[in-house]
Specification:
The complex is a heterodimer. By secondary structure, chain A is mainly beta. Helix content of chain A is 0%, strand content 50%. In chain A, the strands form two sheets. In chain A, strands 2, 4, 5, 6, 9, 10 and 11 form a seven-stranded mixed beta sheet that branches. In chain A, strand 4 and strand 5 form a beta hairpin. By secondary structure, chain B is mainly beta. In chain B, strands 2, 4, 5, 9, 10 and 11 form a six-stranded mixed beta sheet that branches. A five-stranded antiparallel beta sheet of chain B has the order 1-3-8-7-6, with no helix packed on it. Classes of the chains: A mainly beta, B mainly beta. At the A-B interface, strand 5, strand 9 and strand 10 of A face strand 4, strand 5, strand 9 and strand 10 of B.
């Protein structure tokens, strides 16, 4: 089944404790992105990657890191989480830019206390 | 920069037709996409308009006018399961703030 998976789905952590949210897709897609969604429904792009070893900042990259060492994986790293990073995070992948058809993972609900 | 505007909420009855509008301002244009998101779920792709005109996919249609920087999503024969939030997006990455559609029996 074609899908984007994220782990963990839920995470409660404390300020300053480094964490990684994994994202993997099995569709051989070139593009991958991370978004955060806060109450009020806004989806904002954090980082994106157009190919292996190619990453770039989205609208809200501060406090986040990413890497793309393999085509299928695109982990999101919070090196020193803060309460304002409490949010719902989505990973997405896209084959190419012909239709901008993104496939989203199920989401990771992160709470930083 | 990019900016997209959508109504925050729309209410309609089952079986009716509803139109969700999206106006945008972008530096460069790469098409308008539409996504559906149910409460607690992930966004799912509905349609894409790269050129002016209407795209139809079953009960859903999407329209684009590049000269007016405007598009809309049209949902016909509304069903209760259509109650969700709907987002327009430019370049696939810049999302509007979403329109919550409430379908009433």
């Amino acid at each position: 089944e074609a899908q984007v998976t994220q782990n963990p789905r839920y995470l409660i952590t404390v300020t300053g404790k480094k964490l990684t949210v994994t994202c993997s897709q099995n569709m051989n897609h070139e593009y991958m992105s991370w978004y955060r969604q806060d109450p009020g429904l806004d989806l904002r792009q954090i980082y994106y990657s157009m190919n292996v070893e190619v990453t770039d900042k989205g609208d809200v990259p501060e406090g986040y890191k990413v890497s793309r060492k393999e085509k299928r994986n695109f982990p999101l790293i919070l090196e020193s989480p803060s309460p304002n990073q409490t949010s719902l995070y989505f990973c997405a992948s896209m084959k190419d830019a012909s239709r901008y058809e993104q496939y989203f993972g199920p989401g990771t609900r992160l709470t930083v206390t | 920069g990019q900016s997209l505007e959508q109504p925050s909420e729309v209410t309609a009855v089952e079986g009716a037709i509803v139109q969700i509008n999206c106006t945008y301002q972008t530096s460069g244009f790469y098409g308008l996409s539409w996504y559906q998101q149910h409460d607690g779920g992930a966004p799912t792709f509905l349609s894409y308009n790269g050129l002016d005109g209407l795209e139809e996919t079953g009960r859903f249609s999407s329209f684009l006018s590049r000269s007016d920087s405007y598009g809309y999503l049209l949902l016909q024969e509304l069903q209760m399961k259509d109650s969700a939030s709907y987002f327009c997006a430019v370049r696939g990455f810049y999302f509007g703030s979403g329109t919550k559609l409430n379908v009433k029996p």
